[in-house]
Amino acid sequence: MTAAKAAKGVAKLIGPLSVLNIALFGYVLFQPLLTTRISFFIRNDISLWQAAIDLYRIDKFLFLIVVVMGIVAPAIKMAAMTFAWYFADVFRVPRFLKWLVLLGRLSMLDVMLLAILIVALKGIGIGTVLIRPGFYFYVALVVGFLLLSLLMERMFEAMHRNAARAKR
After folding, report:
1. DSSP labels, the chain
2. What is the pLDDT of residues 98-107, one digit of tens each?
């Protein structure tokens, strides 16, 4: 039996919200998160994808960290969680769920790095940093998927407890 079939109440929303988060992730990757302005001459829109491309030219190690932690890990986590929800047997999922939750927690690192970037650029005093709507979508995506993964983890734990009680 899959989690999608076994879910009751609010838990039924986990699957559709997971699919929505995957779509939102694709959107957020290319949307400007920040706009920097140095004086009145230079304006630069910064998206996650563009930042990764720029980092590749500047620092390959930092590029690798940003791509792995900011793009690949969240994408794998979202796809694996959605797959587990709709297709995996409920009693086999908990083994993998702890790894998925860890990936989700590591993706919170992105929000912190963006916040540090904003503070650093504003602190320099050379220009301005404008937060774009894409930034808020990104924060909502990271926090939302963290909450979904925690809800999914609790649901699986409850199902295993109920199954263990039924065996007694």
Report:
1. -BHHHH--GGGGGHHHHHHHHHHHHHHHHHSEEEEEEETTTEEEEEEHHHHHHHHHHH-HHHHHHHHIIIIIHHHHHHHHHHHHHHHSBTTTTHHHHHHHHHHHHHHHHHHHHHHHHHHHHHHH-SEEEEE-HHHHHHHHHHHHHHHHHHHHHHHHHHHHHHHHHHH-
2. 777 676 666 6
